Amino acid sequence: MERLELEFGFTKIIIHRFRKSSEIDLDNLGKIPIDTDTVWPRYSARFLRAPSPASKGSYVKKTNLGSYEEFSDLVLHEIEAYELLRRHPHPNIVEYRGCVVSDGRITGICLAKYKMTLNDRMKVSTPFDKDRCLECIERGIRHLHSLGIVHNDLKPANIMLDELDRPGQKFAPGMKTGALEWSIDCSPYEYALCENDMFASSKLREFISREAPRRVNIRPLLRSLCELVHQ
């Protein structure tokens, strides 16, 4: 899956080098039919159905057509994991809001929308409580493991933060082999193991400790200044 995403991204870079046209002759384009059975799995009533249109503050995760041959089963696997989390929710795992359904098929997964990723947050100069953030991330990972779920792709781009800097982890169980720079030995994982998440969690701790300024409690200092002013 990671290899396909890299190839697709490189293809986009190549395409950007060509001259753009405002008109496309559809009649002269080669058309390749897509088997909808392998792209969009059939909806089952046992899954939560998302409202249509999606509710405010939602994000719809759609199919990656770059790897559609194997996507249907993977989507169902991901939904099963989110359904399990719906029965056993955790504040530090992204909120699942149901399946997006069209013509009886699942075309997307509706999730809560967050303000920014941890990567983006590191670029903001406002104070950031890194210890609290790390604690919440690790609590979320422990919760996943208690349910028999392995994240296997833990990295700053997959840690979402809301307006109060509360983290929520997004994931795709069974679909990722680990980001190379966040994996053991910097190589893809062959298996989804809890130790993969624990290693990535330690890397996140290093990343946040290195990048984020520690939030300082200035109340005692302000209190002392006020006392000096009133003396």
From TrEMBL:
Q: Specify the Protein kinase domain's residue ranges.
A: 18-231
Mind telling me which PROSITE patterns this protein's record contains?
PROTEIN_KINASE_DOM (PS50011), PROTEIN_KINASE_ST (PS00108)
Q: Which Gene3D superfamilies match?
A: Transferase(Phosphotransferase) domain 1 (1.10.510.10)
GO molecular function terms attached to this record: ATP binding; protein kinase activity
- Matching SUPFAM superfamilies: Protein kinase-like (PK-like)
Question: What is this protein identified as?
Answer: Protein kinase domain-containing protein
Q: Which organism is it from?
A: Claviceps pazoutovae
Lineage, top ranks: Eukaryota, Fungi, Dikarya, Ascomycota, Pezizomycotina
